[in-house]
Every structure is written in structure tokens, then in C-alpha cells.
Amino acid sequence: MTILLAGDIGGTKTLLATYRLEADGLVQLRCERFASAAWDDFSALVRQFLAGGKAGSEAPSHGCLAIAGPVQDGRVRLTNLPWELDELELASSCGLERLELVNDFAVLIYGLPHLGQSQQALVREGLPQPGPLAILGAGTGLGVAIGVPGPQGLIALASEAAHGEFAPRLEREWRLKQWLQQDLSLERVSIERIVSGTGLGHVFRWFLHDAGAGAPHGLAEAAEAWALAELSGAAERPDLPALVAAAAAAADPTASAALDLWLGAYGSVAGDLALQSLCRGGLWLGGGTAAKLLPQLRSQAFLAPFAAKGRLTPVLEQIPLRALIDPEAGLFSAACRARMLLG
């Protein structure tokens, strides 16, 4: 029996799980959540988890940990925690034959080909072909990763494409960009500033600004409090993007207009990524917005800008679009990568 270790490591929480490898896939045996900040030594956390299994149970031989940070040469230093992780040292300390550290968004690439129906949802049919895959995820920020076929399976390529320059398509997107650059005192406006859950909050704030003081809105106070919290880094804040999405669902005209603009920008960026990666195997939409805004992602507000790429529109029309809706997809994908390490 082969047992694998998988982890999804963030600044707030750490999820660790063991999986059993079976002929028809991976079966999760146990999973435990830890408060990351409560541990000074990450290897001690992993050892405690492994020691918590049933007496006599087989220990994992291989593992993969998805880390919220840039991994280079098997090492990573987490931004918000006093952890400097080295995969060779961790493997030795935790009694594993092999352990790999992977960026927590790039690791999703390894899980995409193995997702069950409950873990994903169709956004738009296409004509999948052998070739690269890609995933774009709008959550608090915007994640981007590409998977290219290799001799041993997919190779995940982490990307910082979300920090490229936002390219307005429409006059109102241009005005939004100019206002946001001035309002946040930015040298430049990245894609992530607009195409992310946080970006939806900024888009709505711009609509309030553009309407002028003579057009009060029920979310104006929440928008102001949210903006102040964003600038100060305060943890306590209204969830403005969620409030905007709820107001749009209730047919509020300002919130609906903001959501439509955001969807159009997101769709255009997704189309650009599809062209850059030629992900004929499919493009997945992840992040916290994928499940929450699934009907909107299936609408022409998103799909039309995705495909509106001139002479290359026929190429994009063949690329399947799916939403990744499993909240534990990172853990599952890490287990899929650990399975690949078996050779």
C-alpha cells in the first residue's frame, strides 16, 4: 500500500492530509488543519501530524506541499511566517523518501487532469486537444499558471503574468485605470489591481466616484470603509466585493454595471492568457470567484471579450473553459503531484 503526504500551506492555515494510492485514483485517509502562526518550526508541525495516525498505520513515502510563496531550487521563505523551508531537509526530518515544495497556485496544474465532476463545472464547451493547460484564478489576488506536457506528465510553470500592465479595451476602462492610478498613488496599474476579487471592489468604487456626490448609494459607506482598510492593511473590513455581487444579483444598476465591467476585463485577460499559452487542452478559472460567480462567467459579459481577439477568435472558440470549484483543490493537486514523484 502506497501512502502519500499532501499539504496546502498558507500564512493563516496549514492543511495536511494523507492519501492512499489505489488503482482508480487517490483516497484521502485523514486531514488536519493547523493555525500556521502557532508554529515556529514547520517540520515539527509535520511530524506531529504524521504521529497522529493510527498505531501501526503505514507512513507516507512521498509528499508534496503547496506553499503560498515563490519556490526556487526547492527552497522558499514565507512572507508572513518565520519559516524558511528546504525540501531536502524537510524530507529527511519527516522520514520521507522524497518531498517537493510547489507554489500553491502552480500546483493546481497537477490536479486539473484528474478532477472529478464535483470538483469542476463547465463554463463553455470546446474542442480539447493534446497540449498545454492553463489556469487563471481571481480571488483576493489573481493567480496564473501554465502546464506543459513533458516526458513524465505535466510540468507546472508558475507565472507572475497578473502583474503585467492592465490594457484598457474601452473608454470607461481607460478612465477607470487613470482614476485608480491616482487614487492609490500608483506608478502603474497591474492586471491584478482590476481583475481580482479586490479589483471588483475598486471597480465599484470608481462607479460611485464617476456618478458624483449627487448620486448616493446604499453601499457608499461600506465602500469608503473598505477602501480605508485596504490602504491601512486593517483586517476588519466590509467584504465589499461580495456586497457588490449580491447587489448586482438584486438588480442594483450601479453594482450590475460594475460587475459587467469587471467580467469584461476578466474575460479579455483570460483570452490573452489562452493566446499566450495556446492552452488547447483547456483553460480553468479558479480562485474564490469561480464558484460564486459561475452563472456570470457563463454569460456573454465574460465569454464575448474572451473570444474577441480578431483573426484568432476561431482559435479561442475551440478552447474549453471550466471552473475549478473545489475549495480543497490545492490539497488534492498536491497529492496528485506526490503521486508523480513515485516515478
Question: What percentage of amino acids are in beta strands?
Answer: 15-25%
Write down the overall geometry.
globular
Q: Enumerate how many helices there are, as a single number.
A: 14
> What does the main sheet amount to?
6 strands, mixed
According to DSSP, the number of beta strands is: 13
What does this 3D model show about the protein?
The chain has 343 residues and is of the alpha/beta class. It folds into two domains: 120 residues, ATPase, nucleotide binding domain (Nucleotidyltransferase, domain 5); 163 residues, Hexokinase, domain 1. 39% of the residues lie in helices and 24% in strands. It has 14 helices and 13 strands. It has a six-stranded mixed sheet with strand order 8-13-12-9-10-11. The protein has a five-stranded mixed sheet with strand order 3-2-1-4-7, with helices on both faces. The chain has a two-stranded antiparallel ribbon with strand order 5-6. Strand 5 and strand 6 form a beta hairpin. Helix 6 packs across helix 9 and helix 9 runs parallel beside helix 12. The longest helix is centred in the C-terminal third of the chain and has 25 residues. The two termini are 16 Å apart. The mean pLDDT is 93.
